[in-house]
Amino acid sequence: SIPNGPAGPLRFPDDFGWGAATSAYQIEGAAKEDGRGESVWDTFSRVPGRTRNGDTGDVAIDHYHRYAEDLDLMRDLGLRSYRFSISWPRIQPDGTGTPNQRGLDFYRRLLDGLHERGITPMATLFHWDLPQALQDAGGWESRDTSQRFADYADLVFHALGDRVPAWLTVNEPKTVVQNGYLTGHHAPGRQDPDAAYLVAHHLQLAHGLAVAALRASGSDSRIGPAFNLHPCYPADDSPQAAAAAHLYDGYENRLYLDSLLKGSYPEDVLTDLGPQSRMARGIRDGDLAIISAPVDLLAVQYYTPIYVTADGGTEHRWATSEATWQQIYPEGLYDLLTRITREYGPIPLTITENGLPTPDTLAADDTVQDTGRISFLRDHLAAAHRAIADGVPLESFHVWSLLDNFEWDAGYDQRWGLVYVDYATQRRVLKSSATWYRSVIADGGF
Ligand code: PNW
């Protein structure tokens, strides 16, 4: 009963990795348990006015204690792939040194539970919860943090590597750059453009050093970064708008893609930043070789396009979601996937996030009708399907998110899950999108 759907049926490859995603700080809670240290998000969410309603991840959706129930939900949905993140401050409370065994044990239990249920794990090493002690030492503005990350990654590879076939290094370096250091809406809440792009370089370097650590460990697990990418369209057909959209694309996409896959930062962005920028001065000989070491897969997160005006500003052209930054444009996913394959070659791709926040409420009959999410996912999956048909090596798709959770500065007001969480009781209820997704997985399409 979905109006205006694509003409079906659409069949995905038999081995397609139907999945869903979460991240540690957004779901785990148990902020002070089993030796976990503080992260920048513990600090940031406590500063008055930084998050909606002053919400924090202290309890979140209590996944740390309810993980077995959540694993059963995943099995119920028929998920083949589950993407989650490992909390760095659970493993190294101060960001360095000997691992905290109880932290590692939690992820061992989770990974064993996935294995028992036949669900393939995909583990992100860093989804924004930097140990506060490392922030106090300079955070991502300090080159040393990249090395600390590689040491942490190495430790996790050795402790959990036998159970993890695919690793993701850094989640969305761009969001740390833009929200953490340009707008200040995310931790650490800075507004310092010169710092921001040095941070971008150090995040890319951290990725590359972690790849080197995995290769040195002799592991045959796969590894790659997770980039959120935004197709940038000119708002009119003037040459000015085309040029503005191209530079915008440099900052949104090529900064990350080119350094990873071409071994160089885009010239137009470097020129725009200038030779005296902290980033330009922070790039050392050999860094780009580290950053561009071959990866096994590229994780793509797609939410929205950007519509760029001739003066370099942006406009909204398509319908926006509850997240003011998100415009709904499924075609953007097709454009993005085909562009990556065309410009960067046939690197295996996974979509590690795609989703929509909706104003979900629990009805008297204990159902949640989120038809907007169903339409959104159906249209984006149809775009992904077309990209596959056109030769894009897309292996899997993960809905953001499996469960409603702590949506960073938007707190608990924005619900992104397939599964509704009643925050007062922590009860989980499948939304209509969850039962729809279950049938899509069972049928291999729709
Ligand atoms: C991602 N944008 O963040 C994150 O990886 C998730 O943790 C988060 O919950 C999810 O998307 C929903 O927001 C993004 O401005 C933040 O385009 C900002 C943007 C995209 C993704």
TrEMBL record:
Bilayer-spanning residue ranges: none
Keyword Hydrolase: yes
Binding site for substrate: Q26, H127, N171, Y303, W400, E407, W408
InterPro entries: GH, GH_1_N_CS, Glyco_hydro_1, Glyco_hydro_1_beta-glucosidase
GO CC terms of this entry: cytosol
Reaction(s) this enzyme catalyzes, per UniProt: Hydrolysis of terminal, non-reducing beta-D-glucosyl residues with release of beta-D-glucose
Active site: E172, E353
Keyword Endoplasmic reticulum (UniProt): no
GO biological process: cellulose catabolic process
Organism superkingdom: Bacteria
EC numbers, comma separated: 3.2.1.21
Molecular functions per Gene Ontology: beta-glucosidase activity
Keyword field: Carbohydrate metabolism, Cellulose degradation, Glycosidase, Hydrolase, Polysaccharide degradation
Family from the record: Belongs to the glycosyl hydrolase 1 family.
Name by which UniProt lists this protein: Beta-glucosidase
